[in-house]
Write a structure and sequence with these properties.
With 360 residues, the chain is of the alpha/beta class. The chain is built from twelve helices and 15 strands. The strands form five sheets. The protein has a seven-stranded parallel beta sheet with strand order 3-2-1-4-7-8-13, with helices on both faces. A two-stranded antiparallel ribbon has the order 5-6. Strands 9-12 form a two-stranded parallel ribbon. A hairpin with a 4-residue loop joins strand 5 and strand 6. The N and C termini lie far apart (57 Å). The structure holds nicotinamide-adenine-dinucleotide and 2'deoxy-thymidine-5'-diphospho-alpha-D-glucose.
């Protein structure tokens, strides 16, 4: 049996990863460590509550004793670190927690894994162990109109979020370069799918449009993101765990670059058609003050993971966006619960004072 210590699995991608792995393999055990911040939601894991292959632990990746004891108790073959503060706008408003969780939390996990897996006298590692850091394309900074991020593109993060992720990546690299720790780093483009917290573009726009609220498009809306269906990201992480060469970085993306305004208009058209609601139309779009330091374009070159590991994306954007919209429509109660209470305050703080830019 293979044991995974996976962090952050009450969040968007981690939740999908646990479901993906439990559906794919029978002989595995997943220890899921999550602090249940605003982005963590145990409701996402309700259907696997009684599955003995999944053990949920409520705790923080910065907690030395807890992480050491989990590694000692369960002896994981893989540690996969999804846990993070993940929203760029929040990092602009308050960077400190991004350093604590994304940098110090990652270093703590590396150090606890090293304590358990490394024989300092022999300078050897226990066989079959690996640490996987789930990173992001944002560490590469922004592209101009042409070209793609490859694994050798220099790190050039701009936001506090991407700087914290780049910093964590460098610590993972340092543990490999210094101690020969078996590690991989994955850098994926923008994910979309079910269970995503509605602070992010796609679920936020779905929720607002459904409620006939304004759709706040930052700046001219021509910023480009490279969208990947979340299950394809999870498939890639599984393949990197199984076949990734120690010390290597793998970019993950499906060449699906779209301007933000295209995404918003697609959501409007799909929702209007599904709900037969004429009030859902493009007049809801409101161009607002741009994000500070907003990266103009991301685009991943996935050639390495395709050629070395045989990965390819299975879900086209056309299929994935419809599946995603259908899921949010079928799970309105989930949306209502996560957008009650604290979310209202967040929305007020983040959007109420944003300057309206008028028609573009
Ligand atoms: P998310 O914000 O939805 O979930 C993060 C999870 O981490 C939550 O469950 C939260 O409770 C948990 N967490 C936060 N701080 C913690 C701590 N100190 N200890 C333990 N758990 C903690 O994020 P996501 O979108 O699922 O992203 C997961 C990972 O993937 C992140 O590392 C992110 O940088 C990376 N990533 C995300 C995307 C994307 O498009 N969402 C793309 C590429 C990479
Ligand atoms: O590229 C990978 C990254 O993708 C991950 O590392 C991050 O964790 C994840 O949050 C995501 O970052 P982005 O900043 O690209 O995602 P977000 O959904 O916040 O925004 C997508 C684009 O939409 C971005 O150009 C900003 C814009 N936007 C976003 C929101 C929330 C708007 O125009 N209006 C909005 O209200």
């Amino acid at each position: 049996m293979i044991t995974y210590l996976v962090t952050g699995c009450a969040g968007f991608i981690g939740t999908t990863f646990v479901h993906y792995m439990l559906a794919k393999y029978t002989d595995i055990r997943i220890i899921n460590l999550d602090a249940l911040t605003y982005a963590g939601n145990l409701e996402n894991l309700k259907d696997i509550e009684s599955d003995e292959r999944h053990v949920f632990v409520h705790g923080n990746i910065c907690d030395k004793e807890l992480t050491a004891s989990l590694i000692a108790k369960y002896d994981p073959d893989f540690i996969i670190n999804f846990a993070a503060e993940s929203h760029v706008d929040r990092s602009i408003a308050g960077p400190e927690i991004f350093v604590t969780t994304n940098v110090l939390g990652t270093v703590n996990l590396l150090q606890r894994a090293k304590d358990a897996w490394y024989d300092a006298g022999q300078k050897t590692w226990k066989k079959g162990k690996k640490f996987i850091q789930v990173s992001t394309d944002e560490v590469y900074g922004a592209l101009g109109a042409t070209g793609y991020f490859t694994e050798t593109t220099p790190l050039d993060p701009h936001s506090p979020y991407s700087s914290s992720k780049a910093s964590a990546d460098l610590f993972v690299k340092a543990f490999h370069d210094t101690y020969k720790m078996p590690v991989n780093i994955t850098r994926c483009s923008n994910n979309y799918g079910m269970w995503q917290f509605p602070e992010k573009l796609i679920p936020l726009m779905i929720n607002n449009a459904r409620n006939h609220k304004k759709l706040p498009v930052y700046g001219d809306g021509m910023q480009i993101r490279d969208w990947l269906y979340v299950e394809d990201h999870c498939k890639a992480i599984d393949m990197v765990a199984q076949g990734g060469i120690d010390g290597e970085v793998y970019n993950i993306g499906g060449h699906n670059e779209r301007p933000n305004i295209f995404i918003v208009k697609t959501i409007i058209a799909q929702l209007a058609e599904r709900l037969k609601d004429p009030q859902i139309n493009e007049s809801l779009i409101e161009h607002v003050e741009d994000r500070l330091g907003h990266d103009r374009r991301y685009g991943i070159d996935p050639a390495k993971i395709k050629s070395d590991l045989g990965w390819y994306p299975e879900t086209t954007f056309e299929t994935g966006i419809v599946k995603t919209i259908d899921w949010y429509l079928a799970n309105q109660e989930w949306m209502d619960r996560v957008t009650s209470g604290e979310y209202q305050k967040y929305y007020e703080t983040m959007y109420a004072d944003r300057e309206r830019l008028g028609d573009k």
